[in-house]
Amino acid sequence: MVVRVIGFVLLIAHLLLVAWIGLLPRDVAWVTAPNTVPLAGLRADLALGPAAAARLIAEGLLLLAPLGVLLPMCDGRLDASRWGSLARTTAAGALVSLALELLQTAVPGQVVDVDSVLLNTLGVALAHLLVVPAARARLRRRRTDPHGPRPGRGRSRGRGRVVIGNEADQGRTPRIPRVPIAR
């Protein structure tokens, strides 16, 4: 519960920061044309040289990358499917990026760039892949054994199934027979 609240607060703070950065009017003498051709802006960035291209591409990847961690954190499910979580998070990141680009059409000095949507979405997906599976695994381990490993409480095998901790001392889980439904 605490993780969800912290995730939600950080998500709101990050989205406000992104909105402030992305929707701040720019005082410029001229504005470039909108880029609606995928990867054309990346080719133009690469033509500027390796240092400038790396900086511009990193900015695009890192702008919304925290969403890849914060959105699953707000969800709070530890047993979610890896691929389902990645798909949901990436889709949400793409929608946030698209909304930001569409809102920029009304801001003076800001132009639409389809490559920004692609880079922002890729950044969300990469952040999710790099952080979320490991964090969920660690939290699952902490949930099952909050005090960490203790002597004599490791994993052992018993009658064809894996026994964790002192589960064998408590016996088997009782089975409830099915009760037919009255018609």
From TrEMBL:
Transmembrane spans: 53-74, 86-105, 117-135
Residue ranges constituting the VanZ-like domain according to the UniProt record: 12-131
Chain intervals with Basic residues compositional bias: 140-160
Region: Disordered, residue numbers: 140-183
Keyword terms, alphabetized: Membrane, Transmembrane, Transmembrane helix
Protein name: VanZ family protein
